[in-house]
């Protein structure tokens, strides 16, 4: 063959290769952008649409009109009734009525796709629940809650809370979405908070911010080092700080020991489902089942041997005087509304259940929003 013909053939081959490579790259780019637009289809290993449940029954319908009546549905009805009755009884005896403001809704995490609202309570596995909410609202960004680092679950911009909506939008969601929260026996929750925030060396921000204050106020003859570091707070001192009337006057409680009553307003917002720490995984998986994702998303299991138990809580309270136990019982009494009013065995003289004023068994009064400050109705 002549060299000119060979040269033409070589050029043709090069052109074909360039053409094939370009077309291939073009197709790859199209696939890439398509998968960005529909990540659920690409990443969900179950091939199911975890994203949205348009057209199917909502969690509220599943809960209140189940296709099959189960013991679980009845159990949750009983829990709801308990809370409603206690709140109603208290509202009859209370003269002062309080209306919620958007500021009260900071703990209510919204999942628009599954029409659910979760009120997160620190020390009741909220890290794991926030991870689950990120999977549910992430539109395919995550599959497995445990692939999300704990600190990322607590970044506020990763989840949308109810206070970020307009008042009509808030009311629409409160009316139509399934609202749920998880509660834990109040004394056990406090022990869990104390152990995590004051006995772990790495929690220096808590030591500095609260530990130093607790030592300064509750310890006579504190050393300069203890006053500076605040890293050796005793449980007795922590309890004394909680029941000290100065504490709440100075600033609101930190959310890790703030009452569920103040964080989630169970007498103002009608919760459709109240999960308990004792049955955390079972109750959580029931929520996921109601959301229609139960077959492919499970609540993370947690085999942590160091968990705060009933026995451990009893031990911590052994050194607390009966006066302080009683005062602490009063402090947390409102939270026993949602806990089914279980009294701690270690409270020596069980005081009468004290419920505060300002209880209004309504959701939110859109017309009563002012400048964001607390609004009281007579
Ligand atoms: N699946 C599961 N089962 C049982 N217990 C669980 C589970 N997930 C988290 N936990 C326990 O929840 C406690 C931590 O709660 P939070 O994540 O809300 O804590 S924090 O607010 O982020 O500090 C912490 O409790 P304590 O260990 O008693 O402190 C965790 O052990």
Q: Can you put this structure into words, describing what you see?
A:
By secondary structure, the chain is an alpha/beta fold. Among the domains are: 59-185 and 250-307, no CATH class; 193-246, no CATH class. Helices cover 48% and strands 7% of the residues. The protein has 17 helices and seven strands. The strands form two sheets. Strands 4-2-3-5-6 form a five-stranded mixed beta sheet, sandwiched between helices. A two-stranded antiparallel ribbon has the order 1-7. Strand 2 (108-111) and strand 3 (116-119) form a beta hairpin. Helix 9 crosses helix 11 (235-243) and helix 11 (235-243) crosses helix 16. The protein starts with a helix and ends with a strand. Bound molecules: 3'-phosphate-adenosine-5'-phosphate sulfate. It is a single-pass type II membrane protein. Its EC number is 2.8.2.-. Belongs to the sulfotransferase 2 family.
Mean pLDDT: 81
Distance between the termini: 104 Å
In terms of quaternary structure, the protein is single chain
Say how many strands there are: 7
The chain-level structural class is alpha/beta
The helical percent reads 40-55%
Note poorly predicted spans: 33-48, 342-378
Count of separate DSSP helical elements: 17
Note the beta-strand portion. 5-15%
Q: Strands across the major sheet, in which order?
A: 4-2-3-5-6
Which small compounds were modeled alongside the protein?
3'-phosphate-adenosine-5'-phosphate sulfate
- Computed Rg: 27 Å
